[in-house]
Design a protein that fits this description.
The protein is built from three helices and seven strands, in the order H-E-E-E-E-H-E-H-E-E. By secondary structure, it is α/β, with parallel strands linked by helices.
């Protein structure tokens, strides 16, 4: 006697929900990832110093990046929050710093809780850096940190 085998179709799982979830996770991580590109501009070449140390941990760092004078118009620019501001006249930069101050106050903090991190190009004019610090002082900021590249020790 012959036994007939019944062939059942192979059952496959529906992959659509898994693919949807994967794309949602990718989108989620792209939104929450901390892009520090606004914190460091590659056009800024920091000066080298033997005394440079790794950055300290700060609660509210505000990074200002000062460029070397532009060869075309001899103006110095300041990058803050991904935007480019002219160092002179400093009206727009001052307004941005005052907005940041209002944000700090809304969080129950003061300008003393924030630290202005200045990343000035090695060819930036000292007077421009000093004027930016004075502008920050006019707004009410009191803590500053200057950044430089640490020279590597020769072994």
């Amino acid at each position: 006697m012959r036994i007939k085998k019944k062939f059942e179709p192979v059952k496959e799982a529906d992959m659509t929900p898994m693919i949807d979830m994967t794309f949602q996770l990718i989108a989620f991580f792209m939104v929450i990832i901390n892009f520090t590109e606004t914190e460091q501009n590659q056009a800024i070449q920091l000066p080298k110093s033997e005394l440079a140390k790794p950055p300290d941990t700060m609660d509210f760092p505000i990074t200002l990046q000062i460029t070397r004078p532009d060869p075309a118009d001899q103006k110095t620019y300041v990058y803050y929050g991904g935007r480019k501001y002219a160092a002179t006249p400093p009206d727009q930069l001052k307004q941005a710093l005052e907005t940041q101050k209002a944000f700090l106050e809304a969080k129950g903090k003061t300008t003393a809780d924030a630290t202005i991190i200045i990343r000035a190009d090695s060819w930036a004019r000292t007077g421009d850096v000093q004027r930016i610090i004075e502008l920050c002082q006019d707004v009410g900021y009191v803590n500053y940190a200057l950044r430089a590249l640490q020279e590597k020790e020769h072994l």
